[in-house]
Amino acid sequence: MKRSFVTLSVLVLLAALAATWGGREWSLSHVRYFTGRQDLGWVSCYNCHLVTLEDQPWAKPRPKHDSPAGLAVSPDGARLYVALDDRDQLAVVDVASRQIVQRVRVSGNPYGLALDPTGKRLFITCKGGDRVAVLDTKSLKEAESIEVGLMPAGVAFCETKSGPRLVVANSGSDDISILSLSPFKEIARPAAGREPYAVAAARGGELAMVACRLAAAVGLDAPPSSEVTVVNPGLGRVVSRESLDSAHLSEGVAWVPSRSWALTPLVKVRNLVPITQVAKGWVMSSGLAVSDLGGALIQMPLDEVNDYFADPSAIAVDAAGRRAYVASGGGDTVSVIDLERLAAWLAKAGEREKEEAIDDLTLSSEYVLARLPTARNPRQLALSPDGKTFFIAERLQDSVLAVNTETLQPLGRIALGDGGLSDPIRRGERVFTQAAHTFQRQFSCRSCHPDGHVDGLAYDFDGDGVGDNLLDNRTLQGVAGTMPFKWNGKNPSLEIQCGPRFARVLMRTDPIPPADLQDLTTFLQSQPPARTVHRSQQGKLTESQEKGREVFFATHQPNGTPIPRDRQCATCHRPPLFTNRLPSDIGTKGRYDTTNHFDTPHLLGIAASAPYLHDGRAKTLEELWTVYQTNDLHGVSSYMNKHQLNDLIEYLKTL
Amino acid sequence: MKTTLASLIAMLLVTPPAMFALDAVGDVPFPIVERFENFGKESGIPANKVHCVTKTSDGRLWIGTWDGLCVREPNGQFRRYGPEHGLSHKMVLAIVEDPRTGDLWLGTMRGLSRFSAGKLTAFTQTSSGLPNNVVYGVALVGDTVWAATAAGTGAFNTKAGEWKIYDHNNTVMHEPWCYTVTGAGDLVYIGVWGGGIIEHDPKRGTFKEYRDPDKDFHFDLVPDDGPINDITSWLAWEDGILWQTTYFGFSRYAKGQWQTWVETRSPLPSNFTQFVWPHKRAAWVGSDRGVSVTDGKFWVNYLVGDKGEGLVEIHRPGATQPEKRTMSTALANQFVLGIYVDDTEAWFATSKGLSRGVFAKTKTAVAAAK
User: Fold this and answer.
1) Crossing angle for the helix pair A543-552 and A642-652, nearest 10 degrees?
2) Distance (Å, rounded) from C-alpha A194 to C-alpha A173?
3) Three-state SS for A256?
């Protein structure tokens, strides 16, 4: 009996071992067959199977919040309009009582606001609806609506000799819609810089300035520059393109009539300096571009030597041109700038001093009058018409703070919501946008990932020399389920990616506390992929895109030649996330790279995340195959003609 | 009577030479060039060879040269933009303005460039969907920029950011070497170097081919039966009329009817025609022997004599011989590569410099001036 039991046990054990060994062998052969790669070891089933888009955290319903976006004050100063993009609402606030008197439904994520001079019409950009709505402020009913470019953000009203015009920054399609009001139609759509975001009228409406957030992709080793696009709204034309050299992330712009200055907050970026060299040059800083729109442009610092005010966003200037207010979304501060002192410094400074001003953080004390603390994430500002009050949209507090401009003391807070702190996603976004987690509050996660996306730059992550070993910044939108992370694929989870090592290398402070880290990763996983297709075109493929889809999923060349499995697009970029989450060698190893295998990025929203490849060498999707393809290692593309390549790219734009 | 006669004599004495010219050609239904003003390297143009010329809606003159794009500043100086400013290649072959945004689209020997408010952006065959880097002709139709290239015609929808390619793979054109493209209302005409003319209706997605019916390269066997030749060097459309230049003659197409001209049977001075600019239903044609202007009946040829003098030939309908004159000035060079004409003046891009054609005053203008 005992012997039988032992025998049976041994047999069961052997059978189990055999089954395990056989299963492993089958698994390996399965993986190697379907990837075409013999170098792979054991791979989790989840790399290729049991994944759906519907199961991703970003696809699930999530709590909505009363996050204030654009602000506008009625000409009589009695009403404050607040766009609540997350709620699809506009809040109408009685300024005297600081109470919401009405909430109006506006579909499509209302974001930017502009009033006509009479205050009778409120123009609302709907970022998710790709449209501009016109609200009758008396009836609070939507009177008109017009389709514009992708993801309109900022809007400004301009009175021109040719009649009233609206200038709309289409942040997703890199262009500007210039609209006439009677009739209400688009008269021109000139190209802007990359990601146009904020708009302001200048010279009495004769001009409008459009601040663009991102720098155009420039390839390896070149410093980036972003753009303020200046248009003539009457003619519908671009009149100048002001270049913000080595600067980006401008989310506000203002005109100072009394000085004929255009003021643009910016982030001075030093991505070609090794990021490990904190005390020797690396660190992004906040600044303010002062331009006469005639070619003279000076970048002035907003930070202090040992204290930074990260993520400058909105700017407001009083009518007299005495003061400018700049919100620091990461520093929970509004900086008050004395423009007379700034003008005095500019008048006495030599050319070289002006040129180097942005790097001298001692200068800000010459003209920064005060730093006003705010609640979380001040992002938008508005001044009352009499100039006595300014309003600060505290986006992640669901509130608007009213401040007396003379005393610089708070007048009171307008509560739009409860702050949403019971929602881990909201808590995580507060961590994401908070510069307090970095040394001297130098930057936040958002400083490199605006709205969770990319800043379009490649950074020198190693100390091997200036600009020698760049790594492309990757989007966090659609990141859920695409582990491992980093280009070398070494971080198996977001918790590790954003954990202690990250704190040592980048933040140079104590790591983010575990509870905050958990919230942060929850927020990151809630970020949906970037939308790259206009609302009017969603849900259907054009003929070209359909042909491109066939190219993407092709297993054979048109002449019948089989495409090896490891060179088929869909093998590595396997739907639905368009990644198999495995490192691949696509022949892109650079001079200073220590490996030839790089993580396979997901392709969701790929059209909006230029540049491409691990070091950002490809400025456009086309260049992946026309310039940086090596021996058909990055998919077999040598058989493609230009029609097929164009079709493939049109398809990729839909992902 | 005596007073009238005295007035007439006095008027003849004080009237400037332009008036004589006007009186002599007053029956010609399009402007007459009275003299040429020439600009070369000594004027600040960076190269002798000027490929194209246009005036934008803000009144500024732009030229594409062998060595860059130039704009003529209000002070008359030429300001150059080259590859160091972002131009895709120094040789600029075509310039067209987007009338709604004021942007310029430039065809160059290495890609398409956009010039917008002083900033140049390059679109090449490797960085964009452009079919080929050699861009001979550019046209703007609505939101779409059309680029005629050495490997098909590319259509770039500026709103959608989408490229489409039209070539021998997906249209009726039998070869991809496209020299020129022009908008014509709802239609687009593509000039194919050895393949005649392709008429494309973008809304319907249809293509129609116009070929030389006699299929003879060197002789126009049957006049007015179709395009003069398949070797289409340029196309231009205005007010319902399509004009075609070829290396073997010149054609006009309107309301389903073709008209053709060759040098042996018409006042056309040379069969080698490579550019046409229509203005108020008259065609200004550039050839290797100068410029011809015609409305299909009248012809005025501006030629260069052996000694470099300007020659004018005025061919009137029904007249057996042309009226010939000598001008005090001539085109900078007889090989005319590009033309721009408006109501006030004409500009000519030539293989050795740029010329401005100053118009003789019209009867009405003279009367108004008086």
Assistant:
1) 90
2) 8
3) strand
**Residue labelled with tokens 């699809």:** A88
- Fold (CATH) for A31-59+540-652: Cytochrome Bc1 Complex; Chain D, domain 2 (1.10.760)
**Quick check: helix, strand or coil at residue A114?**
strand
Please tell me which of the candidates A173, A229, A646 has its beta carbon nearest to residue B165: A646
* Mean pLDDT, contiguous 10-residue spans, chain B (370 residues): 49 42 70 96 95 96 97 94 96 96 96 96 97 97 96 96 94 92 96 92 94 79 88 96 96 95 94 96 97 96 94 94 94 97 97 96 52
Q: CB burial class (10 A; 0-12, 13-18, 19+) of residue A416?
A: buried
What's the CATH superfamily of A427-525?
A: Cytochrome c-like domain (1.10.760.10)
> CATH 2.130.10.10 spans which residues of chain A?
71-419
Q: Regarding the domain with residue range A71-419, which homologous superfamily does it belong to in the CATH classification?
A: YVTN repeat-like/Quinoprotein amine dehydrogenase (2.130.10.10)
A333-338 and B119-123 as β-strands: parallel, antiparallel, unpaired?
A: unpaired
CA A278 to chain centre: 24
For residue A537, list chain B residues with Cβ-Cβ distance below 8 A. 160
Q: Cβ contacts of residue A42 below 8 Å, gap of 6+?
A: A24, A27, A28, A31
Residue in B closest to A230 by C-alpha: B117
CB count, 10 Å around CB of A421?
Answer: 14
Closest Cα in chain A, distance from residue B229 (Å): 29
pLDDT at site A19: 85
Interface test with B, best of A150, A242, A642 (most B CBs within 10 A): A642
Q: Across chain A, what does the average pLDDT equal?
A: 94
Q: C-alpha distances in angstroms, B175 versus A129, A565, B233?
A: 43, 35, 14
Q: Which CATH number fits domain B19-369: 2.40.50.100, 3.30.930.10, 1.10.10.10, 2.130.10.10?
A: 2.130.10.10
A407 phi, psi to nearest 5 deg: -90, -15
Written as one string, the DSSP assignment of B317-336 is TT-SS-EEEEESS--S-S-E
Helix (H) or strand (E) holding A301: strand A297-301
Q: Give CA separation, A557 vs A553, A563, A640, in Å.
A: 11, 6, 9
Q: What would the two tokens of residue A242 be?
A: 């002001």
Nearest partner of B58 among A180, A191, A237, judged by Cα: A237
Burial (Cβ within 10 Å: 0-12, 13-18, ≥19) of residue A94: middle
Range(s) of chain A covered by CATH 1.10.760.10: 427-525
Does the distance separating the beta carbons of B159 and A643 come in below 8 Å? no
Domain assignments of chain B as residue spans, ordered by start: 19-369
Structure-block tokens of residue A345: 């410094």
CA–CA dist A642, B151 (Å, integer): 10
Q: Which of B179, B211, B209, B207 is nearest to B192 (CA)?
A: B179
Q: Which residues of A touch B143 (CB under 8 A)?
A: 189
Contact predicate A383/A374, CB 8 Å: no
* Secondary structure element (H or E) that encloses residue A432, with its range: helix A424-432
Work out how many CB contacts closer than 8 A connect A with B: 83
Which residues fall within 8 angstroms of residue A234, CB to CB, at 6 or more apart? A158, A160, A161, A162, A163, A165, A206
The span from the CA of A35 to the CA of A37, in Å, is 5
- Whether the link from the prior residue into A511 is cis, omega within 30° of 0, is no
Encoding tokens for residue A161?
């000799």
SS3 content of chain A, % helix, strand, coil (to 5): 25, 30, 45
> Which ipTM did the prediction report?
0.88
Residue B269: the pLDDT is: 96
For A97, the token pair is: 């009582």
Amino acid at B236: A
Task: Say if the Cβ atoms of B126 and A240 lie within 8 Å.
Answer: no
DSSP state of A334: E
